[in-house]
Amino acid sequence: MTEPRPRLILATCCLSLFLVSMDVTIVNVALPSIAADLHATMTDLQWSIDAYTVVIASFLMLAGSMADRLGRRRVFQTGLAVFSLGSLLCSLSPSLGALVGFRVVQAIGGAMLNPVAMSIIVNTFTDPRERARAIGTWGAVFGISMALGPVLGGVLVESVGWRAIFWINVPVALGAIVLTAKFVPESRAATTRRVDPIGQILIVVFLGALTSALIEGPHAGWQSPWIVGGFATAIAAVVALVVYEGRRAEPLVDIRFFRSWPFSAATVLAVIAIAAFNGVLFLSSLYLQDTRGLPAVDAGACMLPIAVALVVFAPMSGRLVGAGHARWALVGAGTATAIAAVLLTSITVDTPLVQLIAAYAVFGIGLGLVNTPITNAAVSGMPRAQAGLASALASTSRQVGSALGVAIAGTIASATAPRDPAFAAAIHPFVWIVVCSGLAIAVIGIVSTGAHARATVRGVASLVD
Q1: Is residue 433 located within the same domain as residue 309?
Q2: Using one digit for the tens of pLDDT, what is the confidence trace for 143-169?
Q3: pTM given for the model
Q4: Which of 146, 139, 107 is nearest to 13 (CA)?
Q5: Counting CB atoms within 10 angstroms of each CB, which of 274, 275, 430, 457 has the fewest?
Q6: CA-CA distance, 154 to 92, in Å (whole number)?
Q7: Domain count across the chain
Q8: Are 68 and 387 in contact (CB under 8 A)?
Q9: Alpha carbon of residue 67 to chain centroid
C-alpha cells in the first residue's frame, strides 16, 4: 500500500466501482423528471432502476469467469467501453421503453467491472492486512458512490436536466480506460472454469421472473396466472440451480462456498442491507419531490447526510475489520439501520426536515459500517484463484438486493400516487420492514463472527483450493 503502483491500481478499480454503484442511485433523484418528460408510471420507474440491477446481477459471475479466462484487464476495459456507450444511449432516450433498453446495455458493461476489479485488487494485495485495508477502501467507495448519487443527481437535474446524469459517466469511463492501460497489468487465472450456459440461464430466469412478478403484481393482481407463474418459475429456477450446480465439477455458482458461515452471512447481509437502502432511497426521492414539492437539488441536499456519514464511518469500518472486529461493525450497522428506519415510521407530508435529515444521517452510518465486512467476509480465507468467483457472488448479492429493494418498496407504495399527500403513509409498511432488516443485520453479524464460523472458512478454503 505504500508503493505508488498498487495504490494507482486500487484507485483505477475504485473508479469503475464508483461509476457502476453511483448509477444505481443517481437515477433515483431524477425519477420525477423522467416521469414527467417520458410520461412514466410507477411501474415504469421501477423498471428504469431494476432493468439495470437485474442484468448486472445476472451476468456478474459470467463476467468474472470470462476475465479469468480472457484476461482481467481486457474484460475490464471492454466493460468500461460498453458502460460508456450505454450511458450515452440512455441520455438520448426518446421514450421510457428506449431508456429501459439502453439501461440493459449499460448494465452489460457494468457487469464486467466490479467482480473483475475486485479480482485485480485481491491478486495485487497479497498480504492479508494490506488486502483488508484495500477492501476497506473499496467498501468505502461503494457506499460513498451510492450515497453521493442522489446529491450529484439533484444538482445535475436541476441545472441541466435528467439526461445529464448519464452524460457524466462517459468522460469518467474513458479516463478509467486510459488509466487501466497505463497502470493495470494483464493477468489470468492459472486454471479457468468451463463455460456453464445452463447455470447462467437459470440465474437469468430466477432474477427476471422474481423481479417481474414483484413489480407487475399490484397491477396484474397477485392471483393472476402470470404473477403466480412468475413466482413459481423463480422458485423452480433456484431449486434447479442448486441441484445442477452442486453436481458440476466447475460450476458457475460454487455451492460449496455457502458451507462457510461468514460467506453465507455476507451474501444474506448484502441482500438485506442494500435492499433496505435502495428501497428507502427510491421512496424518499418520490416523497421529497412529488409529495413535499421540493426541487431536485433540495431533495438531493436532504440526502447529503448519508454521504457525510459514509465518509466518516466507512474508513472506521475498514479499520475495525482490519483489526479483527468485524462483529462490532456489523452490530453497529444493524443498530443504526433500525434506528434510522424508526425515525421514518411516522413521517407525514409535514414532517420537519430536521427529522428526515437525522434519519438519513443515521442510515448513512449503517451503510458505511456494513459494506467492508460484507466484502471482506466474502473473499477472506478463500484461495486467490477463487477470489474472482467469490467477489462476483458478493457483488451479485448486492445487485439482487438493489433490485428487490426497489421492487418491494414500489409494490408496497404503488396503490397511492406520489403526488397524493397520503403517499407518506403508504411508505410506512416498507420502513417497518427496514427496521426488522436492521435487527437481522445485527443478529447475523454476531452469529457469523464466532469461532465456529471462522473454522468453517478454513474448511471451505481447503475444499475449493
Answers
A1: yes
A2: 677 777 888 888 888 888 999 999 989
A3: 0.82
A4: 139
A5: 457
A6: 19
A7: 2
A8: no
A9: 20
